[in-house]
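Journal club prep, shared notes

We agreed each person brings one worked example of a sequence with its structure written out as tokens. Mine is glycine--tRNA ligase. I'm keeping it raw so we can talk through how to read the token line rather than staring at a rendered picture. Sequence first:
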Amino acid sequence: MISNIDDVVSLMKRRGFVYPGSEIYGGVANTYDYGPMGVELLRSIRNLWWDFFVTRREDLVGIEASMISSHRVWDASGHTSGFSDAMIDCKNCQLRKRVDHLIEEYLDQHEVKELAKASYDSSIISEEIFQKVITTKKVEGLSLPQFDALIRAWSISCPSCHKFDWTPSRKFNLLFPVHLGIIEGEQSLAYLRGETAQGMFINFKNVMDTSRVKLPFGIAQTGKSFRNEITLGNSIFRTIEFDQGEIEYFFDPDKTDWKVLFEHWCSQMWTFVTKELGIKDENLRWRVHSDEERSFYSKETQDLEYNFPFGFKELWGLAYRTDYDLKQHMLHSGVDLSVFDVETGKRIIPHVIEPAVGLNRILLMILCDAYTVDTEKKRTVLKLHPKLAPVQVAVFPLVSNKPELVDKAREVHAMLKPLARTAWDARGNIGKRYLYQDEIGTPYAITVDYQTLEDETVTVRHRDTASQERVSIEKLHAYMQL
Ligand code: GAP
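Then the structure, token by token:
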């Protein structure tokens, strides 16, 4: 666990986990490329997630929907209209807020007399507008420069960190539009998906009709989502392109108590993070969304938060979305998405509980949690769970200029390669090779030396303790707990 995100960012770059996107062309903000180590770790997270939530359960099935979908999907979900607010970001704590909410909350907390004392930029705000704002305590219809001028007039500080360090306010929609077709004027508007969730809703009927599922059941999906985020900083915590792992769990609210189901998913998420990923309990907490913060269709939303070096932040959201999404898609598509209940003879529209996580955010959490500085041995160690380590076993010949050692080490490497994620390294002195493996989190480093040629044993070095043991080659795989 580290206190400064820069240490992890530097290690991620130095050791091939994550590079800034388009780096040789000066970079594109909020985009990242995954290197040899990062791609292995991300793949392991995705596979573990799928295994835990889909493969090991009877009541979950998976899909993989298109990343590009009709604009009508996003009209129905409310994303095309709902994400077009003027937003402002606190540069200090990354709080993002609707700028009209920020100002109106301030107006509500202050008397008109007090508000009237402010000096404002009259080239942007007329006397008439100013008077209207302070008497009605509403800012509807104002322009972005007018919002900013009001914030400056009262020095409205961030409600979260109380600093006055805002970006200019800007109107934006989080969705990325794509224009399909090559003939100008005949192109049709589509969007890169802003969440994988909608893929599950629009395929609900397909899945019901083509598989043996019955309520309650869930549809799961992992894949890329895209959001035109303006917040910068904190590495891959918030990016414009990211991998999500989402589940829409459908149920009949008359037969299944949503509170019991909600509890079940809370406990599944907690178990996954603590037991499967090995994250310490003390770095995790639940946060219940307030009424204002919660989406209007959600009855309950809770975030599982992790104590990142920049504070406790959302890792994973859990929301009871009611029947909002299926109803919206029924309305906009005209397709009946209700389910016939053979017991009651009635049709119902299922309700939904949704656990939604960012896989890249899990990756960042894992690296922050595993990052350790061993001051005694002067090394940085990534104490990754062996099943997550990008390289699980590294194999070295003691020296690279003795063919008999190199051949024997090659033999050991070939034996282990089908059984684990392995790496071969014969370059440089052995101490440096160990330090490199420590930094990428390799739990075992095996060295073939002169004794190996005599008794078929090798040295196994343990990453966390740096202790070494001799183990016979034939027992190697069983010895390592991978
Ligand atoms: N379908 C619901 C939904 O997408 P969300 O809270 O917007 O809810 C779910 O996103 C999760 O996806 C978050 O908890 C976070 O882990 C991840 N996430 C959201 N936006 C992200 C971004 N811009 N970059 C990286 N991860 C993001």
